[in-house]
Give the backbone structure.
Amino acid sequence: MADKKKPLQKQVAPIIGYDAMLSSVVDLLEQARRTSARAVNTIMTVTYWKVGRRIVEYEQGGVARAEYGAALITQVSLDLTARFGRGFSKRNVEQMRFFYLTWPIAQMTSAQFKENALAKCSTASSISFPLPWSQYVRLMSVKTSEARSFYETESLRGGWTGSQLDRQISTLFYERTALSRNKTGMLKKGQKPLPEDAVTAEEEIKDPLVLEFLGLKDEYSENDLENALIQHLESFLLELGGDFTFVGRQRRLRIGDSWYRVDLLFFHRRLRCLVVIDLKLGKFTHADAGQMHMYLNYACEHWTCPEENPPVGLIICAQKDHALAHYALDNLPNKVLAAEYKMVLPDEKTLVAEIDTTRKALEAKQQRKL
C-alpha cells in the first residue's frame, strides 16, 4: 500500500526572491476573498431591501391586508424557511421590512437615478448600498434617526468595519460627540481604528449572515484539538447509555445583533431537558459562566418545548495543567429538581478524567506527526 501523501516541507535552501513572490500571491488571494465577500454582501443587501419593499407594498395594497401585521411576517418567515432554510426567521424578515421603511429610497449609483420615481426602481444593477448588510442590521438597532444617520455617515467617511461600528454605537459615540465642545477632535479620534476592529478576509467570508444568504453551513472549528475533543465528548456521552440524544454540534444562536455557537446540544430523555455543552481550552472564568447562563436563557425561550424541563448547561475547561467540568444549575426553579439533575447526569469528575485522558492522547498523537 502506498504511503499517505505527506505535507510539503519548507525548503531548507533559500530561494532568491521567493518570499517577495509568496507575499504577493498571499496579498492577491486575500484581496480576491475580500472582493468576493463584498460582492456577495452587495447582492444580499439589495435583495433584502427588495424583499422588504415587496412586503410593505403588499401590506399597503388594501385595508384588509394592512390588518395582517405580525401574522403576515410569521407566514412569510415560515414559507421562506421551508423553501430556503436558515436566514428567514421572523426577526430577520422583520428586519428586511424595517430596512426598506428606514431607507425607502435606495442609495442609487447616480444622481440622475435618484430623481426617478420609486416605481422605476426595478433593476438590481441600478440599486446600490455602500455598507454591508451586517452594518445596516446594526444601524437599525439605533433608536433615533439622527443618531442612525450620524453613524451611517461616519461609517462611510471613515471606512469603518462592522466591529468598529458596533464599538462606536455601544460606547455612545454620537451622544459623546454631541456633548463635546471639540466636535472636530472627537470625530478625528473616532475614525482611528483599534486592533480588535480589524477583520480578516476569512472572517468576512464566514460572516454568519453571508453564510445564511448563500445557504452554506458554518459547522467548523478553527482549532483541530478543540474539534477532536468535541467529537470525542459527543461519542463518550452517547456511549453512556440511552439517556443522551444528540441534537446538534456548533449550534448557532443569535442574541440581539451578535452571533454565538454552542459546541454541543443534547436532549436527556430521563430528565426531559436540553443539555447545552460549551468546551474551553483555557482557564475557567466568570465570563464563561455568564455566557453559559445567557445560552440557557436563550435555549429556554427558543429551543425548549412547553412540556420539557428547563435546560442545563455543562462547561468543560480542558486546559493543560488543570481540567474542570461544571454544571450550571442556577436556572432551575427549585433545589429538588437541581438535586435530581445532579443524581442523573454524569459525574463531573468522570467527565474531567475522560477529557484529560483524551486531550493527552490527542496531543501525543500530534507530536508524533511532527
